[in-house]
Amino acid sequence: MASFSVKTAKLHPLVLLVAIAGLCFAAKGQLTPSFYDHICPQALPTIKAIVQSAVYNEPRMGASLLRMHFHDCFVHGCDASVLLDQTPAINSEKFARPNNNSLRSFEVIDRVGSQLDRVCGCPVVSCADILAVTARDSVVALGGPWWNVPLGRRDSADAYQALANLAIPSPFMELPALIDSFKDQGLDIIDLVALSGAHTIGSAQCRVFRPRIYSDTNIDTSFANSLQQNCARSVGQTDSNLAPLDPTSARFDTMYYKNLVNQKGLLHSDQALFGGGSTEELVKTYNSDYQAFWRQFAKSMVKMGNIKPLTGYDGQIRTNCRRVN
Ligand code: HEM
Ligand SMILES: *[C@@H]1O[C@H](CO)[C@@H](O)[C@H](O)[C@H]1NC(C)=O
């Protein structure tokens, strides 16, 4: 005890000031799962609790949070650019074609942000890291695998609406275009097939599967007929009617792959993974071996989460995820 106080007394006040400031401003170059262990040990348990309650209230919210991280990472890297609201200076990604009237769960991110401010004492957790952790916790809450999330991303000071229109794959794509889209992000066909397994949870709107259920030939007839009941042939009132992406859309299981084998993929892009191309064997593997799917999904999520993060002194830690500081 005595030696401790002597040592403390010798510390220059400036050193103490820097040490205390360090509690609120941490900057390191590489992502690591332990990033918040000292600067805010309550960060991860806090996020987990909020995600659990959001998913308990509405299972689909878990799917929406998982998709949000994907749409963040594919556009200028995992930098929370997707969360910025429209302003005269910001062309929000929320209005990009794949996101407009589709992306959801922004309110859950707001809730996490303000609760973290409270438990950490200052804004230390980046919005980009919040997206990565809420995605993982959502998968776990819906019965899927857990993985260690590398952390330490920082947030962008800009949004990239035009890039969002280009970089996020479309549900009308064929396999070669899907492969290219993932390749542009440094992801291979194993990542493509495993990450597409995210469609084991959540829902899609009529407007994105209409051509599939009325025009595709590689679709189970009774499956197509039943979807047509809730999704009219012509553009109009039923455009935003929902269908589950797989029949067990609140459980993170392998039903997505079983559907593909049975020509019951909901999106044209889903079924494209099982049409005789290079991805067909992987679909069969994940259909018959959930552990192989879980292992690869976790691995590919880490890989996706590592797409061009801002680190060190790049970017910023936004105090409000919807606005630049
Ligand atoms: C492979 C290319 C992909 C395409 C073409 C695609 C396309 C889509 C489309 C069109 C929807 C429905 C949106 C709506 O109707 O509002 C959707 C939903 C969803 N996507 Fe994807 N997606 C792809 C990959 C991924 C990946 C890699 C993930 C995550 C790792 C993901 C996670 C989800 C989830 C969880 C939903 C349901 C969201 C909800 O219910 O709110 N998708 N996707
Ligand atoms: C987004 O959707 C709204 C309808 O809710 C529409 O008025 C608007 O034009 C869309 N924005 C873009 C950029 O397409």
Automatic annotation (TrEMBL):
Protein name in the entry: Uncharacterized protein
Organism (species): Melastoma candidum
Lineage: Eukaryota, Viridiplantae, Streptophyta, Embryophyta, Tracheophyta
